[in-house]
Amino acid sequence: MSTTTDGKVGFGQRTLDWIERIGNKLPEPFTLFFGLFIITGLVSTAMAMADVTVAIPGGDEAIAIKGLFTGEGLAWLTTTMGDNYIGFPPLATVLPILLAVGVAEKSGMLAAAVRIAFGKSPKWLLPYAVGFVGVVGSIMADSAFVIIPPLAALVFKAAGRHPMAGLIGGFAATGAGYSTSIVPTSLDALFAGITTSVMETLPNTDYTAVNAVSNYYFNIASSIVLAIIAGFIIDRLIEPNMVRKGVPREYANASTSGLAREYQAPDSPYGDASATSDGSSESSDGDSSTEIKAELEPEETKGLIWSVISGLVLTAVFLFAFLLPSSPWRNEDGGFLPESPLLSSIVFIVFAYFMLMGVVYGIVVHTVRSMNDLVKMMSQSIIDMMSFLILAFILGQFIALFNWTGIGSWIAVAGASGLEAIGLTGFAAVIGFMLLASVLNLFIVSGSSMWTLMAAVFVPLFALLGYEPAFIQAGFRVGDSATQVITPLNPYMIVLLGLVRRYEPNAGLGTVISRMFPFVIPFWLAWAVLLGIWFLFDLPLGPGNGIRL
Q1: CA–CA separation, 134 vs 141, rounded Å?
Q2: Taking phi first (over 0 means left), then psi (-120 to 50 degrees means alpha), and beta for anything else, what does residue 466 get?
Q3: How many C-beta atoms surround the C-beta of residue 460 within 10 A?
Q4: DSSP state of 457
Q5: What SS3 state is found at 77?
Q6: Do 168 and 238 touch, CB atoms closer than 8 A?
Q7: CA torsion 319→324→328→332, rounded to 10°?
Q8: Which of 93, 142, 513, 532 shows the smallest number of beta carbons within 10 Å?
Q9: How far apart (Å, rounded) are the C-alpha atoms in residues 15 and 493?
Q10: Cα distances (Å, whole numbers) of residue 286 to 36, 174, 259, 273
């Protein structure tokens, strides 16, 4: 066992060790929420036996808390379990988008778009290209953590810049900016479904329903600002630091040359790394491993061009259909805001773009040859999300119980009254909420789990203080992303460590986390300031969604 020469461990390392120990003691999300379900059931039963009631502002009469472990509660559970699961709002929005994004990803279209963004960037612009691609990489879901960092290292090296700066910067931008993107993603649909569902605890509150584009304007601004900050940090801090410390620019071992296939995205559209052009198989040692190149092959370029053209054609069709004076996608007043069939069609619109562009690209590059190929790609995308589908079962039960018992309403009213009593009802309260999310993010790395937990309490609470659910969801995005690149519990930290060890065989988890720290505070502060600007000037967060009720 290796130790430092003086036997002392620094404060930073002790902090990381403490985070890892505490985090490892937490149960996995399904067990965690099962435990919370039981605790909520016990507490609700005790409150029901004590005849606790809650008076919701605007309501006609007080609502009695209902207990799970009563005759009424057990009958509710046995008759609604299926509805609680199938009715979990994120399922209806996430799954369709997931199917289409799966086609766009597994046909190779998304990876090709990332590669061309890197390959066409001049040397001085590379850090900012890495920052932008990383921040918006959540389009590809978790695959972004596997694809973007090694590609960034590859193009940095090809341009004569330090590959480690590209590797570290690509991972940091992807992780710290994971909650935002310039296009709606499945994450937007997931958050929106949870946000809307917890508002059932305040049945008499008028609020704007949250959908996949409720934070869209804020997300666009966030993506641009964070990309610029990431690029600046990579260019002015990370790369000079790598040069100053003499971090190797070449792989430490010849057998690790090339982008090893274990770091390619699952089900790579480029085929098996060990297959030769004639279909035979080679040894999978490092010298023969297939490398994902930053430059596109002519066929891939052609596929991407036709994919973009198909997207433009679809845009023209949508504009024609939606902008007609008699369009059925307008509301009764002839407009689109605050609610309309158009806003209710966001899931379909996102689905259509990803599906069409992915299919067109796949047809051109021959990754889509038949309907069977599409079915396989969509099937694989569902398999990739199987853990979420299982987790959604207990999340649905937890939220349904929280709403049905009335505990959510009671906590919201009590919490709002407490904050009003101490005068903490402005943006400072939102800052406190974001800080709490950042701390919890060190231990609960699943965004859906953490938002389910926090939204159940804080969305109704802040609604009683006069804030739209979409605004609190935007605040959660700030706290949720920035710290996930410094927690040892992030499973992709191990992938990053493996990539770093190609250059520095003796690097440890502390090495990569220390290199992530320069991104965390600037990202958090800039994002919080941006949200503060939205708050101060009461800007729309997305179509029809504002700050205050």
Answers
A1: 11
A2: left
A3: 29
A4: H
A5: helix
A6: yes
A7: 120
A8: 532
A9: 17
A10: 47, 27, 9, 11
Note whether 112 and 304 are within 8 A (CB): yes
Query: Which residues have a Cβ under 8 Å from the Cβ of 344 and sit 6 or more positions away?
Result: 211
Q: At what angle do helices 371-384 and 386-405 cross, to 10 degrees?
A: 60
- Reported residue count of the chain is 549
Gap between the Cα atoms of 523 and 526, Å rounded = 5
Q: Residue 542 forms beta bridges with which residues?
A: 545
Average pLDDT of the chain to the nearest whole number: 84
> Omega before 57 cis (within 30°)?
no
Q: Which two tokens stand for residue 114?
A: 């990332």
- Structure confidence at residue 365 (pLDDT): 95
Strands (E), 154-203: none
Greater pLDDT, 371 or 25: 371
The neighbouring-strand residues paired with 347 are none
**What are the DSSP calls for 94-154, one per residue?**
HHHHHHHHHHHHHTTHHHHHHHHHHHTS-GGGHHHHHHHHHHGGGGGTTHHHHHHHHHHHH
Helices and strands in the chain: count of H runs, count of E runs: 21, 2
Neighbours of 508 (CB within 10 A): 14
For residue 267, pLDDT over 90 is answered with no
State whether residue 328 is helix, strand or coil: coil
* pTM for the model: 0.78
E strand spans, 252-331: none
